[in-house]
User: Which sequence fits this backbone?
């Protein structure tokens, strides 16, 4: 499913998505295709779901034009 389809079905809501296809430009991941898991009505619930997300799942608001995720490198830890 394309992001624009999700936006038209669930306007101005949070949604839990699984990323099916994406591409990377520099340190930004642009999502091309998603699978809708479910809509989330409550913003507090959306925050809780976001904190539990793993692998290719994300919570995103349909008010956003595109899904873009800034990628961060894992920090290096030094210990003695």
Assistant:
């Amino acid at each position: 499913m394309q992001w624009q389809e999700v936006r038209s079905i669930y306007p101005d809501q949070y949604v839990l998505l699984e990323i099916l296809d994406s591409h990377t430009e520099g340190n930004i991941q642009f999502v091309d295709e998603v699978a809708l898991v479910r809509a989330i009505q409550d913003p507090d619930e959306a925050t809780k779901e976001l904190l539990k997300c793993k692998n290719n799942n994300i919570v995103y608001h349909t008010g956003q034009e595109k899904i873009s995720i800034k990628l961060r490198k894992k920090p290096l830890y030094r210990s003695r």
About this structure: DSSP finds two helices and four strands in the chain. The mean pLDDT is 92. The beta strands are 14-25, 28-40, 57-61, 68-70.
